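User: I'm putting together a teaching handout on how multi-component assemblies are represented. Below are the sequence lines for each component of a complex, exactly as they appear in our records. Could you produce the 3D structure of the whole assembly as structure tokens, so the students can see both representations side by side? Please keep the chain order the same as the input.
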Amino acid sequence: MDRSELLEKLKGILEPYVQDKQALANLNEDTDFLEDLKINSANLVDIILDSEEVFDIEIDDDSAEKMMTVKAALAVFEEQIN
Amino acid sequence: MIGFDIVSLTESTFPTEDRLEAYASKVLTDAEIAWWLNQADQFLALWKLWTVKESAYKIESRLGAERLLVPKKYEVTVGGRGKEGKMGIGEESEVMGTLGNYFAITHEEAGCVYSAVAQTAQELHAIRMAHFPLEDDNPDFQSIAVQQQLAEFLEQHPEIAAGLTADSSIDISVSHHGLWGGFAICPVI
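Assistant: Of course. Below is the structure of the complete assembly, with chains in the same order as your input.
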């Protein structure tokens, strides 16, 4: 799965938790989950759980702690999938 | 220094018991899990612990801690040391964080749970908290609504507002989630 496919899947994972829908339309690697998408911090955990389900991976605490931006999330997915 | 966090319970439900357990396994330490498994209402107990952790995280963010998702690095002892496991209205707990230990108080109301955390027990007992429903779900409007409520509170409590202009100061932490907002305010001691 290439990076653009990962990004599209991540977009689908984020969608239910995003409060700023316009920011989701402009999603890019620099997008910050809290600052740009206005995702509540409690939902960051949901994003990790949903990512594990969608990609059939296990995200450990060390990897999860960095998943606050698109770039960091994609890096975790790439590491786990490949 | 203080931190405050509120969680709307209606926006924080889990579709299945498995999802609740999976969520808990991501945010609770082994010791917290041991306490949590013995709670009659695990849904409520989880959010109580979360709001304490998040409030402590807010303090540490202001102290310069790196911005990371590390809920397990904030371990809550409900009831405080020596009174572990006791629960009640306005229940107190202690939190071991990454930069220090903190004192917390948690309240449960119809529809929401909120906690305030302080660096000292003296600060904790001086904290005043408020929570209120919000009409708009837009996060920007919610921030404004919380600030308006805070301004009204200070107008109604001039003895606290005086701290803003005198040599002393006051510490404030705000939060909103779902259709609930709130804040904690404390004189700097």
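A couple of points students might notice: Chain A touches chain B through 17 residues (CB under 8 Å). The CA atoms of residues 14 and 47 of chain A lie 7 Å apart.
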